[in-house]
Design goal:
The protein is an alpha+beta fold and 231 residues long. The chain contains 7 helices and 10 strands. The protein has helices spanning 4-16, 28-35, 39-51, 79-84, 104-109, 156-164, 182-188; strands at residues 55-58, 62-65, 70-72, 90-101, 117-127, 130-140, 168-179, 195-205, 210-219, 223-225. The protein binds 2-amino-2-deoxy-6-O-phosphono-alpha-D-glucopyranose. 2-amino-2-deoxy-6-O-phosphono-alpha-D-glucopyranose is lined by residues 78-80, 90, 135, 137, 155-158, 199, 201, 212, 214, 216.
């Protein structure tokens, strides 16, 4: 059987999906009583929902439902994991998939020698059929041989793990803003010049190899970034 805190997380997730932004969740001790578990277990479930950006806490006030945005934290996750964690079904439209010689920018970001071959895959990522982000990923061809023969419509991280035994373990990310160009806006279903968040990721596997360079253009109205900072 799944650990108790995961079962409680599932039940709370179902409840949250029927609640409105900023609605308060019941108090920790009431949840503990209702589910007949310790407060530590309830806290664990709440922490996992907070890590996924689904709820937020205000000290001394309680826990509340986050807004309709996908709040990204410091956890390294895939698009599919992000959506499934929020009870949404991920899907992709593959816009292009090619093998080519890496441009200078891509070679630099993957630390490849000039002239190296890479796969470039451009996809529109959707959640429950709604466009969320436009993603272009660049993968070194020597690490993922014959990649284009596989189905690229599902999770790329899943494919990497299952077919190539490669897992992105750590990444360096950079977030910047950009106004949506005409083509991007049409694909994302937002007005032209709408704000977007551009996240570039250099993904490193367990052997310390740079295995992915990705540029994701997220809808500014659906995403934000939230993480704890320390003095
Ligand atoms: C996120 C990251 C990308 C990564 C993708 C994998 O969107 N920003 O760098 O390629 O997840 O997601 P999936 O495994 O669902 O294809």
């Amino acid at each position: 059987m799944a650990p108790k805190h995961l079962l409680i997380r599932e039940q709370l997730l179902a409840e949250i999906s029927t609640m409105c932004t900023d609605d308060a969740l019941p108090q920790e001790r009431d949840l503990a009583e209702r589910f007949n578990v310790s407060r530590t277990t309830v806290r664990q479930a709440l922490r996992s929902l907070a890590d996924d950006g689904l709820i937020y806490s205000i000290r001394g006030m309680g826990t509340f439902v986050s807004g309709g945005r996908i709040s990204k934290g410091l956890k390294l996750t895939s698009f599919s994991e992000d959506m499934r964690g929020r009870n949404m079904e991920p899907s992709s439209r593959v816009l292009s998939a090619t093998e080519r010689i890496a441009s200078d920018e891509v070679a630099l970001n993957l630390e490849l020698a000039p002239g190296s071959s890479i796969f470039e895959i451009e996809r529109l990522r959707l959640a429950d059929g709604v466009p969320m982000c436009l993603e272009t990923i660049y993968l070194p061809a020597h690490i993922f041989p014959h990649l284009l023969n596989f189905d690229l419509g599902g999770s790329i991280y899943g494919l990497m793990a299952e077919q190539f035994r490669v897992r992105v373990e750590t990444a360096t990310q950079r977030v910047s803003s950009q106004l949506a160009s005409g083509i991007d806006a049409d694909l994302l279903g937002v007005p032209r010049q709408a704000p977007t968040l551009v996240v570039s990721r250099q993904g490193v596997d367990g052997k310390g190899r740079l295995v992915e360079y990705a540029v994701s253009v997220y809808r500014g109205d659906r995403y934000d970034f939230s993480f704890a900072v320390q003095r």
